[in-house]
Specification:
- There is one protein chain.
- It contains eight helices and eleven strands.
- It has about 260 residues and is α+β, with helices and mostly antiparallel strands.
- A hairpin with a 5-residue loop joins β2 and β3.
- The radius of gyration is 19 Å and the shape is globular.
Length: about 260
């Protein structure tokens, strides 16, 4: 029996601008994805006696909803539609909180694609992996990128990725988790897209000490109004001495950068 294990990691968003709504219903955004050292654990094991193609077993944080709709199961079915995959058990230990804007589900999906590719010896190219990733979610392609570089400027739906020379090695990244969960739909509700005269990449060239005044997350406007507790967690990070603090993604987690 063959077993394969990987460790899907989380990300934070440094800046997030919602630029415009697209004809396909998605939004064009501009943001920077930066990995952080928080991981799930994902294992695939052959299950030759199983009566179905794949079964998902989860541990750690509860995952709401039908397991059949989990992104790891969707990743298996996408590949199984094109390749003769044999039955497997997928074991997922959730350590990255859900509804926090840390990309845990997207990371699980990306790592599952890569894990299944290796487990079954499919020899898919990076372009082929990206093709499947885009069918699973806008953030999923980021988690297929090589690290380092650690930081990627993301445009389009979040799928147009450009590596940028941004290092936060001189800072400690601290995460805080308000006791609420925010869905992407909630985050976009009431959002008014807007273009900037100065792009995010140019703003990131400025000293980190200035980011508080020049780099923002557009989702904070509506999310803080609905969930004031998230704003209080961000303000607490500044009170503790963070040089920059922000909600990540569509929330609810917030992070602070502290000088080492």
């Amino acid at each position: 029996m063959s077993t394969s294990v990987v460790y899907p990691y989380a990300k934070i968003n440094i800046g997030l601008y919602v630029i415009e709504k697209r004809a396909d219903g998605y939004h064009n955004i501009e943001t920077v994805f930066y990995p952080v050292s928080m991981h799930d654990i994902l294992e695939v094991t052959d299950a030759p006696e199983a009566g179905r193609e794949a079964a998902l077993y989860t541990y750690g944080f509860d995952i709401p909803g039908d397991p059949y709709g989990n992104l790891c199961m969707k990743a298996y079915r996408l590949l199984a539609a094109d390749f003769p995959l044999t039955p497997v058990e997928i074991h997922l230990y959730k350590h990255i909180p859900m509804g926090a804007g840390l990309g845990g589900g997207s990371s699980d999906a990306a790592f599952c694609i890569q894990l299944l590719n290796k487990h079954f010896g499919l020899h898919l190219t990076h372009a082929q992996l990206m093709h499947y990733a885009l069918q699973l979610g806008s953030d999923v392609p980021f988690f297929l990128q090589p690290l380092p570089p650690a930081a990627y400027l993301a445009g389009g739906r979040g799928d147009l990725l450009t590596p940028i020379p941004l290092s936060l090695s001189n800072y400690r990244i601290e995460l805080r988790f308000p006791p609420v969960s925010v869905s992407t739909a909630e985050a976009y509700a009431g959002m008014i897209p807007q273009r900037r005269d100065v792009g995010l990449r140019e703003r990131l060239l400025q000293p980190v000490d200035t980011w508080k005044c020049i780099i923002s997350n557009d989702f904070e406007t509506t999310i803080f109004e609905k969930f004031p507790v998230i704003r209080s967690y961000k303000e607490a990070l500044y009170d503790e001495g963070a040089v920059y603090a922000s909600m990540t993604g569509s929330g609810s987690a917030v992070f602070g950068l502290f000088r080492i």
